[in-house]
């Protein structure tokens, strides 16, 4: 549970930095993010912690990394991108697309027409409800403690008189 909370904090902070800093929105940053996340996921599997919910808190970051890596040119690309980004809010997807910095000489800038196409598709898919841009990293997951009943019955307990708990 502590690991899940820690990975949520790391994932949320990283996604917020990605959304706020234009210099981090690039293909190479997406590759680096995806590699690092896969290393964390591999470690979780090796430790037998894949059922802890830790992998789920990494999903927004995984999708953001994939968003930075996909092709962003045609209408088919827009459809694939919309089906890929199921955990990110439409505002987050559009913000990353607008901040995307293409590799010098290797890619073209994401066209405004493509961004508006993605935005329209996401609004059709999710509606126009108020979306959250940044991740609230102060969110705390509830701690769940397993309850194991005692095999001893209360009437079988012997409380020493030196404790002065005769009223029990």
From TrEMBL:
Residues 1-124 form the Dilute domain. One of its GO terms (molecular function) is GTPase binding. Transmembrane segments: none annotated. It holds the Pfam family DIL. The keyword Signal applies. Residues 1-17 form the signal peptide. This is MYO5B protein. The gene is Myo5b_7.
């Amino acid at each position: 549970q502590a690991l899940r909370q820690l990975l949520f904090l790391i994932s949320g902070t990283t996604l917020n930095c990605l959304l706020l800093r234009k210099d981090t929105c690039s293909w190479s940053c997406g590759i680096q993010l995806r590699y690092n996340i896969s290393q964390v996921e591999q470690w979780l599997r090796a430790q037998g912690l894949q059922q802890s919910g830790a992998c789920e808190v990494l999903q927004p970051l995984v999708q953001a990394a994939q968003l930075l890596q996909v092709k962003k040119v045609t209408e088919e690309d827009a459809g694939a991108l919309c089906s890929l980004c199921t955990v990110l809010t439409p505002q987050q997807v559009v913000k990353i697309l607008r901040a995307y910095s293409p590799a010098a000489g290797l890619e073209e800038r994401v066209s405004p027409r493509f961004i508006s196409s993605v935005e329209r598709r996401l609004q059709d898919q999710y509606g126009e409800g108020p979306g959250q841009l940044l991740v609230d990293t102060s969110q705390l997951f509830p701690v769940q403690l397993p309850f194991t009943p005692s095999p001893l019955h209360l009437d079988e307990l012997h409380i020493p008189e030196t404790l002065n708990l005769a009223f029990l």
